[in-house]
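Input sequence (263 aa), recorded before submission:
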Amino acid sequence: MEKISKIFKRTTMQICILTLLACLTGCKKQKPVKKNPSFDDLKENVAVASTENQSDATTAYLEKMVAKYPDHPDIPDYKIKLADQYLKEGKFDSAYEFYQHFSRLYPAHEKVEYAKYQAIVSKYYQTLKISRECDSSDTQETLRLCQTYLADSSCRVHRDKVAELQATCEERLLDKEIHVYNSYLRRGKYQSASNRLAYLKETFLPKDDSLKPRILYLECKLAQKQNDGDLATKNLETLIADFPESQFTRMAEGLMSRGTIFA
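Predicted structure, token format:
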């Protein structure tokens, strides 16, 4: 019994010693938090946090760098890193603002084209949010950014991707306008529908001639609603003559023969 007691005491002592050593070792590894970290301190913190995939910590250190050392010669690179971090975290508004800020503040920087492209991407992601009011302002702004980028001959790296985004935005805006047009037809607001159709022809048709059969079909719908058989027949004849294989020609034929309205 006495022997067991001695063994127990010795084992307990060893555990206490090991625990103490572990605590001391752990304390040595932990760096004291500086109240006034230098730029290099924060730079190291960003590197460590990024390596360890600590997203929140990385963002916090970058924000502190940008706020505390705005005039440091290396700060542009860290502003881009912060914008990238915001984009990665889904903070699209903040990412967009930082990319735009970078482009305005450092127009000669080697990453300025990258910042312009990423600003477009950030704004485009904002178009994906659900809006009960069907607000298209973000889509329109994305389209404007795409047009500005493509008009700048010095922007070459991301032209294909930007052109795709531009086409997507234009298609979305077109679909929205047609949706509004059909809504006016359903509610019997024919003058408003006519105005919307005029806007479609003025805004979208000059840039995309392939929309002509679709526009003619929409005119057929309005003409039929207004009991203007002559105009409806004229548009149908134009569709048959100029666009015999178009789906909108077939839809217009069905519209005229059955007196139905297709969305």
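Checked by second reader. Residues 2-29 form the longest helix (28 residues).
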